[in-house]
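Q: Hi! First time doing this. I have a protein sequence and I read that you can turn it into a structure. Is that right? Here it is:
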Amino acid sequence: KKSEQELKDEEMELFTKYYMEWKGGRKSGNTSYTNIPRFYYRLPAEDEVLLQKLREESRAVFLQRKSRELLDNEELQNLWFLLDKHQTSPMIGEEAMINYENFLKVGEKAGTKCKQFFTAKIFAKLLHNDPYGRISIMQFFNYVMRKG
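A: Yes, that's right. Below is the predicted 3D structure, encoded as structure tokens:
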């Protein structure tokens, strides 16, 4: 059996050995830049017609995809109708409120474009000191209008 001191000495030796291998295994100088992903690409020059066309086309496709994700007027009206139909009483003054259970029901009926807004995280973000654990329908609708 090894004594406690011998075990500590052996541990220190191993630590020093592995530390030196780790430290010595690195190339001299700072090479951290090789691990950083590239995030800037220069704009194509005027004479690089193909690259300019590619950039324009990819931008157009991106904008079309984002545009399809937006709610149109009819979908917004439908969302407002569903929220109003599922409001949870009692009202606070003029403000209509909805609890989490009804919030999820509306989320199921609202359609696929709206699904992204019916999460627990968004509900919790809009929850402000309501004794019944509800959020304002108007605040939620305004949130959807801003984010969607």
